[in-house]
Amino acid sequence: MPAFKTISDFDVAGKRVLVRSDLNVPMRDGRVTDATRIERSAETIKALAAKGARVVVLSHFGRPKGERVPEMSLKPVAEALAATLGQPVAFADDCIGDTAKAVVNALAPGQVAMLENLRYHKQEEKNDADFAKALAALGDIYVNDAFSAAHRAHASTEGLAHLLPSAAGLLMQAELEALGKALEKPEHPVVAIVGGAKVSTKLDLLGNLVSKVDVLVIGGGMANTFLFAQGIEVGSSLCEKDMADTAREILEKAKAANCEIILPSDVVVAGEFKEHAANAVVAANAVPADKMILDAGPAAAEALAAKLASCKTLVWNGPLGAFELKPFDAATNTVAQAAAKLTAEGKLLTVAGGGDTVGALANAGVADQFSYISTAGGAFLEWLEGKELPGVVALGK
Q: Which residues on neighbouring strands pair with residue 373, listed in sequence order?
């Protein structure tokens, strides 16, 4: 991970500071229904405003594909941000040109403005140099606080960083520091839990992790494919049988890297995929032909909870079972609660994110008890896969 500057490295008083946030929030009937991203982004905006910056917030919303789609306007988001900040937020109905310039120029130190959806312009996603220059003309300093969009080389996430003095915002800084501690300079032993439905979607992730962690726990539908690859019948379970050779290759790579792979020793099976379906606990190698695996079993969950006690760092991506259907959330809940307890005791650094992970940990009641939970989906996964994130790399230049 490149070295990067933070907002404390700049004197921002009176300066126009462009803050790239990710305010792509859930909306219904023109109202924000979940303000989590707004609340997390507000910390950087508040800090800059308190230092006398003239703060200009940039964000995308949805996928308007270069068209002005009224339902994808950021105006309602600006209103929600104002409520979170406890101060007015001026709004410009374009993100470049005279309209944006007039709103920015009218700001006094400590005031905040938001510009309209970046993706109303096709040039944003193309990382167009002229569009990046038009954005840069509105600011003196650039702050990227959108880790969740850092895997995209867009004008506002990558191009701008080359045109203005640049820094990571507080949210970006927290994310990068947490991820660095988890995989780049972790305390060993390191355990990774990777769940989810398909091996095919997480090949790069598994391939990268076996060379970096001491223990790799495979759960969810992916575990079925690995069990099948070892000659174990998995009944009517979700299973990518065509990925068996790939699974065996990953097992061999792990062995060569001295990485212990853990698969469930027992599983919870049912005849149908639905809430409260009649179920039973069986050994992982004794799944009836007409049953499907919907969760890791209680013995597997307890063994994994005990394993965590001997580790120093946990990276978690994906649930261990069909957590959205009770009681098939039991294994995920058991392990998540054990991890939270160890975190509270200062014995385990816990970093989680991507896909259904945030929902699964919230369901387990521990969403605020891990060391760090990333709300970034694609960016978190690409980081786990060992890929360079253009928005982060640009901050280091």
A: 352
Catalytic-labelled residue, pool 15, 37, 212, 291: 37
**∠ CA 147-364-80, rounded to 5°:** 45
Question: For the chain, how big is the Rg over CA atoms in Å?
Answer: 23
Would you say 213 and 191 are in contact if contact means Cβ atoms under 8 Å apart? Answer: yes
Run of H or E including 332:
helix 330-344
37 is catalytic: yes
- Of 5, 133, 181, 198, the catalytic one is 198
198 is catalytic: yes
Q: How is residue 237 written in tokens?
A: 């379970």
Percent of the chain with pLDDT strictly greater than 90: 84
Would you state the pLDDT for residue 2?
64
Closest CA to 237 of 228, 229, 246, 248: 228
pLDDT tens profile 42-56: 999 999 999 999 999
Cα separation, 57 vs 43, in Å, equals 13
The residue from 101, 378, 386, 387 that is catalytic is 378
pLDDT at residue 1 greater than cutoff 60? no
Rounded to an integer, what distance in angstroms lies between the CA atom of residue 239 and that of residue 273? 14
**Which tokens go with 198?**
């398909």
Beta pairing partners, 142: 18, 166
* Rounded average pLDDT over 332-353: 97
In a 3-state reduction of DSSP, which class is residue 79? helix
Question: What integer pLDDT is reported at residue 235 of this predicted model?
Answer: 96
Q: Rounded distance, CA 243 to CA 250, Å? A: 11
Is 86 a known active-site residue? no
Instruction: Name 269's bridge partners.
Output: 280, 293
The whole-angstrom distance between residue 95's C-alpha and the CA centroid of its chain comes to 26
Give buried/exposed letters for 213-249 (b at 16+ CB in 10 A, else e): bbbbbbbbbbbbbbbbbeeeebbbbbbbeebbebbee
| Residue among 158, 92, 165 at smallest CA distance from 128 | 158
Give the span between the Cα atoms of 218 and 206, in whole angstroms.
9
Length of the chain: 397
pLDDT at 117 over 70: yes
State whether residue 213 is helix, strand or coil: coil
pTM check: above 0.90: no
- Across the range 307-320, mean pLDDT stands at 96
Encoded tokens for 256: 């060569």
pLDDT digits (tens, 9 = 90+) for 274-302: 999 999 999 999 999 999 999 999 999 99
